[in-house]
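Hallway conversation turned thread

IA: we were arguing at lunch whether anyone had actually written out Solute carrier organic anion transporter family member end to end. Turns out nobody had. So, for the record, here is the sequence (763 residues) and right after it the structure tokens. Reply here if something looks off.
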Amino acid sequence: MQRIHVFLLLFSVVLFLEAIGGSYMVSAVQSIERQFQIPSKLSGFMVSAGDFGYIPTVMFIAYFGSKGNRAKWIGGGTILTAFSYILVASPNFIFPVKQPKLNLSTIESRITPSRALLQPNTSIADYINYAPIYDRLPTIMKQQLMKHFGKVYDVHRVERDLTDSITNTSVNAVLHDNLYSIDGDLISKIVNKVNAILKGNRGDEQLKELIAIYVHNRLNNSHDDVMNLKRGAIAPFSFCSKLINELRQIVKNSKCDRNMSNFGPLIVMFTAMVLLGIGRTMPWSLGVPMIDDNVKRKNLPAYFAGISFIRILGPISGFMIGSFCNKLYYTLKPPPGLTANDPTWIGAWWLGFLFVGVLLIGPSCTLFFFPAKSKRSKVVPQNGVSSEQVNDGLAVCKPEKELSFFDKHNDEERNLTAEEKFKAFRESYANVIKSKVYCGAAAGRVLDSLAFRGYMVFLPKYLENHYGIPQYKAHQFMAMFGVFGFALGTASGGYITRRFKLNGRRAALFVFIVSTINLCLFAGKIFLGCRSVVNGVGLNGIATNFNYTTTCNADCECESAPLFPVCNSKGYAYFSPCHAGCREVIVKNRDSYDLEFSSCDCSPNEILKKELCNDDCKLMVVIFFITVMVGAFAAGNGLVPGILILLRSVPPAHRSISLGLQGFLVSLLATLPSPLLWGAIFDSACLVWNQTCSGRSGSCVIYDPAVLRIRAHVTYVAIRCIAVLTDLYVVYHASNINILEEDENEDEVAPKECIALEPPRTL
């Protein structure tokens, strides 16, 4: 295998892995927001941090890197990139979520029966106000029960008469696995008996006997009772139980007391992203001109299409890896009852960064230490004629095909002072800016990136909140339809450019046409609205000004309840089982953890569960991803001719400089502000926020679907309209751009004299 092919293989691998990391960051943003409780504006700032490293270094690295061994520069940059990816993952280990030590004395005192409950003449009101029973009985049932009973009751008489019943019932309660309730079997019997009595059936004495047994069991099982309450307090859902919700608040306060701030993780990730920005300056700005130096012009579309295709396969793989990692919980042990389909799920975002960082080390080091035989290509006699066969000792020689590490268009022999180097640096960039075609093409790519970058960062969040698509599925769909369509378009664009010999204005016109098609398809997304389960919860809250506490759940203390939508038989979505006033949790299947909720004050005599929730988004999702795939295919067709126009719009010696300047402008004016812009757009459409310990807004829970859809897509379309105008400007000025035709002596080095020297003698 020729050395140029070895380099291309290594270059493709590092470019592929770097592209994986870039798209994987998109899949990790939402999980990072949820783990460290940060708003979208702050997460957008974190994503943009890479540009703080990229912007001040790319122009210098593009200039000075083009003067040196480009393979070594590329290898050094990707080594730094590998380290940065590993550093991004480190906050998960440096700042782990530790289980707090809780003071449960208050909770224990509330579930321990008081002396009043064990005294003669205990009233039914005392029993009803006993915390575990009070939590379990629906409000209406408690009120009706108080009206029904007006007499006193001697609990000691029941204990003496029903000792056997107590023992048997206690054993049954222990044998039954009550995950989220205290003595669930027995309390269910009490509730059923109350229902029977309120319907007119006799059974007052049996009810009182059951209550007495329940009180007795609390004396003997206080430790197990507390464990059940703790299990409910850390569950991913909350139901109507004052005891459990008070304990949930205790857990939250304990975390706040330990000063669990998101400042430390953000500083580490911000630093890693800055280093990542420095590392990513080198591969593209130095690698593309290096390929241009070693490949004939007529073959460039095929090579660039291949490199671009590999670079685009990276995001496909990145989204697929993101989908896999988001199926795993960030601690690798999800709380019982929480699944990847739930809106509060936090994926194992750190795993993908470790994977990419470790894989990138090997090929990066190989590139860094890639052997260079010489700075100049070797020469051999033409037609196999050796110098010994030439009478005058001279033979016409041609260059041997050799990998050119150093830019053949740069004069490396001149020894310049520092002042002269700075002057040459300044003049080089001044010459690049004089090209109207370059300025128009660069401006178009800046605007494209401004629209595209931030939109892509928050697209998984949009798909989850607007269409109800889980994170892991959103990343799969983005890979299958968006990135794959773009990859096919790139291959198609390279073929069309070479097949039809698109040169100059024809190539620029082709870029303009496909950009316009992409813009029109994207504009159609403004009208693709629907009502999913999550945004249905948000719309239901409009009537109450997003105060989900109502008369039917006022006794439940749902203020700290996490979002966990459940629906009744009519499909009405509640924010959580707690907000539906549900007091009983039924685990239908311990393996799949199918949950049902009953005894709901807000939806009496019904079983609530997630499976009853419905939406009308299926058709809109299909249409959305059809427009995504077709639009991405159209945009991909413009990539290869766009790169060639940019490279050919400046003198050959300034290619790396032109790419570096374009990267500088794109980062400064597009990729840096774009995530901040889209983060602000998303935050502006937020309806319900999580709260941090300081009382500030954390991550957004529910968005206004219509506001988010319109603001995001109208902003995108407006920016892209301006970008299309710059493409039209390039069409007007691109008549003299030579893309595919070879310049004279472009591929050949002028024949040189080859001096025949006597070979050295060996001893």
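OS: looked through it. The CA atoms of residues 75 and 367 lie 5 Å apart.
IA: good, adding that to the notes. The longest helix spans residues 3-36.
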